[in-house]
Amino acid sequence: MGNYRICDFCGNLYERSSNRMCQSCETIYQKIRSVVEARPDTIVLDISNQTGISVSRILSFVKNGYFVMREGTIEVK
Ligand SMILES: [Zn+2]
């Protein structure tokens, strides 16, 4: 039997690794991160529009400490 855990972000089961999130959430995280790194002044709503990732999903990464919220924009932590 493999060693599984529940993803903190979407609730899916995934094979345990060093990550705190499943592969699909990791992909989403990297997508947000690339926008934030390229254009640090992009507000959350525009990040959502550009990536197709919902604002609430982006904010869940903020809540879990992956990004820091700054007056409507976020920074990579
Ligand atoms: Zn997930």
Characterise this structure.
This protein has 77 residues and is of the alpha+beta class. The chain has a domain at 26-77: Winged helix-like DNA-binding domain superfamily/Winged helix DNA-binding domain (Arc Repressor Mutant, subunit A, Orthogonal Bundle). The chain has helices at residues 23-38, 44-51, 55-63, and strands at residues 4-6, 13-15, 67-70, 73-76. It has a two-stranded antiparallel sheet. Strands 3-4 form a two-stranded antiparallel sheet. The model has no long low-confidence stretch (mean pLDDT 92). Zinc ion is lined by residues 7, 9-10, 12, 21-22, 24-25.
**Small molecules in complex:** zinc ion
Overall pLDDT score: 92
Number of strands: 4
Q: Characterize the overall form.
A: elongated
Span from first to last CA?
Answer: 35 Å
CATH superfamily descriptor of the domain at 26-77: Winged helix-like DNA-binding domain superfamily/Winged helix DNA-binding domain
> How do the SSEs run, as a string of H and E?
EEHHHEE
Helix amount? 40-55%
Low-confidence stretches: none
The chain-level structural class is alpha+beta
Order the strands across the largest sheet as they lie in space.
1-2
Question: How large a portion of the residues is in β-strands, by DSSP E?
Answer: 15-25%
Radius of gyration: 13 Å
Figure out the total of helices: 3
SSE blueprint:
Blueprint lengths: L3 E3 L6 E3 L7 H16 L5 H8 L3 H9 L3 E4 L2 E4 L1
Antiparallel strand pairs: 1-2, 3-4
Helix pairs in contact: 1-2
The chain binds zinc ion.
Organism: Fontibacillus phaseoli
Protein name: Flagellar operon protein (TIGR03826 family)
